[in-house]
Each structure stands twice: as C-alpha cells, then as structure tokens.
Write a structure and sequence with these properties.
By secondary structure, the protein is mainly α. The chain contains eight helices and no strands. Helix 2 runs antiparallel to helix 6, helix 5 runs antiparallel to helix 8 and helix 7 runs antiparallel to helix 8. The chain starts with a helix and ends in an 18-residue tail after the last helix.
C-alpha cells in the first residue's frame, strides 16, 4: 500500500514537471495535460511494452491518469500566484525519479528478469518520460544534459537496489537504500554541480587560408 502511494506521488511530481515544461513553452491547457501525461506515463509505458505486461500500468489502474491530470491542472493556478523555487522543483523531481526508477526495477525482478534487465528497466521507467517531454518541448533531453547526472543516478540507485537484494536484504530496506542513492546523486548534481567528464571533439583546422 505504501509503495503504491509512493508511485502515485512519483506520478504527481513528474506530472508537475511536465506541466511546468509546457508552461515555459506557453502551451494551452490541453497541451499542459498532454505533456504531463507523457512525462508521468512515458517511461512506465515503454517498460511495460518491452516486458509484455498486459495491461499497461495506467490502463490497469486509471487512478494514475486522474492523479496526473489533477496534479497538472493544480500546477497552473499555483504558479500564477507563486513561482516555486527552481531548486525545490529539482529536488521534488529527484524524489519522483527515485520512486519511479526503483518501482521499475521491482517490476522487472517480479517478472523473473535478472539484475541487468532490472537496471535497464529502472532507467527506462525513470528517465524516458522526461526524455519524451523534452523532445516534444524541443529541448535537449535532461538525461543527456551536462551536469544533470540523471541517468547515472538511476543506474547507480537501481544497481545498489539489485545488489542489496542479492546479498539477502528484504525488499523494503533495499528499496530505501536504492532510492537514497538516486536522491543523493541528483542532489549532488543540483546543489554541488556534480557532473561526468565532458566529451568534445577539437575544432577542425581552418584550411581556408592554405
């Protein structure tokens, strides 16, 4: 029951981030709801299709759709009266990422898959909704942006979750540890600008003067 509530909370947080992205692009209310739905359900939908889960999670439990739409529409009047601090939103997004990612790993393990597939499904569940949101809003996906540690946070947290289960921890302690690792990595990127080394090609030599 508690894990289900956390999953709804993750959906609500992702819906808010989608609504804010739509607001930055000045979309109408339908656009806000569409982007919120894509953000909150995109990763889990892709996961369920890849794992051949039937029905897809939000079709099996339409309450997800209700939570997402309510959260998205509630964001509109709230942001008209008060602009939430960016760092607070990023931290909330980190919590949503932790909820969804570990839930994705749990789904894969429950379906009988091994640790590697669980980590991949966690990454898809946590990151791909935001990737679709950013593509639709014509932005560089956050998972690919310098200094975000988005996908890295999920991979680290999901790996720790899988390892914790392997050494004999029960699901609850493993879940908490995995979520804390994700929040710690995202928090480090948000507060202290942690980032991976950047790969860039040197500029091509100017041969126009040869």
């Amino acid at each position: 029951m508690i894990l289900q509530l956390l999953d709804y909370a993750g959906a609500a947080v992702f819906a808010i981030s989608g609504a804010l992205a739509a607001g930055r692009k000045s979309l109408d209310m339908l656009g806000v709801v569409v982007i919120a739905l894509v953000t909150a359900t995109g990763g889990g939908t892709i996961r369920d299709l890849l794992l051949d889960r039937n029905p897809v999670f939000w079709i099996g439990d339409p309450l997800y759709v209700v939570v997402i739409i309510v959260a998205a529409l509630a964001t509109i009047p709230y942001t008209r009266w008060m602009r939430p601090p960016l760092q607070m939103l990023q931290i909330a997004d980190a919590l949503g990422l932790a909820f969804f990612s570990i839930a994705g790993a749990q789904v894969a393990i429950t379906a009988g898959h091994g640790g590697l597939i669980a980590v991949i499904m966690a990454t898809i569940t946590g990151s791909f909704g935001g990737l679709l949101r950013d593509v639709l809003c014509n932005e560089i996906p956050m998972i690919l942006r310098k200094g975000q540690l988005y996908g890295v946070a999920v991979i680290a947290g999901a790996s720790v979750y899988v390892l914790a289960l392997e050494i004999g921890l029960t699901r609850w302690p493993a879940t908490i540890i995995g979520m804390l690792v994700i929040v710690a990595f995202r928090g480090g990127a948000i507060v202290w600008n942690w980032s991976l080394p950047v790969y860039s090609l040197p500029d091509a030599p100017d041969r126009s003067r040869d």
